C-alpha cells in the first residue's frame, strides 16, 4: 500500500514545456513514474519528452484518463492551474510553485473544497512512493521502500529524514512534502490520518517548523486516535521572533508558534521528539522496537 501516488497513478504535468517542468518531468519519467502527458496552453498537439502536450487539463484528462497532476506554473497563474485541475476531476493535485500570492491561494482553496480532490502544497517538494512513483522534485535515489511514512514542511529535511531512515535499516512507504506556505492544501493532521489508515505504514516521522499551529493540531489528533509510533522534529529552534525564516509560513506570531512550545505539545501528546534531524533515523528504529 501507499498513499496519494503509486505505480498506477496517471500523471500529467502542468507547465510541461517550461524549464522547470521539463527538467523535473524528465527525472520523474526516468524514475519510472507513469507520466502520461502535459499541459502548456498554445502548445497542444506537440510532443515533449515523448509525451503528448495539451492546451488544457480538460483535453489532457479526456485523452489520457489522468488522475494526478503536478504543477510547475509561474506564481501569477498557479492558483488558476490548481482550480482547473480540480474542476476537471484530477484527484491528487501537487503544486510545486513557490511564491503564490496568499489571496490567490485563499481563493483556490475555497474553490477546490467543492470537488473530490486533494491538494498537496504549494511550495512543496511533492510526494514519492519509493520504486513506484515520484511526483515532485526530490532526489529519488535517497528513498527506499519500507514501512515508515514521512510528513514534512521542509523539502531538504524530507530528504535528510529519508536518508536517515534508510541508513537505520528501515524504509519508506510514502513521503509527503506538505509545503511551508501560510495556506496549503493537505495539512499535517490530514497527512498523519492518511498514514494511520494505511496498513503498510507502521511508523510515522513528522517534520514541522516554527509558525502556525498545524503540528499542534496533528499532535492533539494523534493523542486521541494514534495507534502507530511517531517521531517528531521541529525546525527553527534558534529563529528570532517576528522574522520569516525560509518559508512564508515560518514566522513566530505567538507563544505557541515557537519550536520549544511545539516540541512540548508533541511530547505531551505521546510523540517522541528529537532535538536534531541527525537523530531521526536512530530514534525511529528505537521506537519501532
UniProtKB/TrEMBL annotation:
Keywords: Ligase, Nucleotide-binding, Tricarboxylic acid cycle
Stated role: Succinyl-CoA synthetase functions in the citric acid cycle (TCA), coupling the hydrolysis of succinyl-CoA to the synthesis of either ATP or GTP and thus represents the only step of substrate-level phosphorylation in the TCA. The alpha subunit of the enzyme binds the substrates coenzyme A and phosphate, while succinate binding and nucleotide specificity is provided by the beta subunit.
UniProt GO MF annotations: nucleotide binding; succinate-CoA ligase (ADP-forming) activity; succinate-CoA ligase (GDP-forming) activity
PANTHER family recorded: SUCCINATE--COA LIGASE [ADP_GDP-FORMING] SUBUNIT ALPHA, MITOCHONDRIAL, SUCCINYL-COA LIGASE SUBUNIT ALPHA
Name of the protein this chain belongs to: Succinate--CoA ligase [ADP-forming] subunit alpha
First-level EC class: ligase
NCBIfam families, A to Z: PRK05678.1, sucCoAalpha
Active site, renumbered: 247
Catalytic reaction(s) noted: GTP + succinate + CoA = succinyl-CoA + GDP + phosphate; succinate + ATP + CoA = succinyl-CoA + ADP + phosphate
Residues that bind CoA: 17-20, 43, 96-98
EC number(s) reported in the record: 6.2.1.5
Domain called CoA-binding: residue spans: 4-100
Pathway: Carbohydrate metabolism; tricarboxylic acid cycle; succinate from succinyl-CoA (ligase route): step 1/1
Record organism: Membranihabitans marinus
GO biological process, one term: tricarboxylic acid cycle
Sequence similarity: Belongs to the succinate/malate CoA ligase alpha subunit family.
Gene label: sucD
Assembly information from the UniProt record: Heterotetramer of two alpha and two beta subunits.
Pfam family, any one: CoA_binding
A GO term from the CC aspect: succinate-CoA ligase complex (ADP-forming)
Amino-acid positions noted as binding substrate in the UniProt annotation, renumbered to this chain: 159
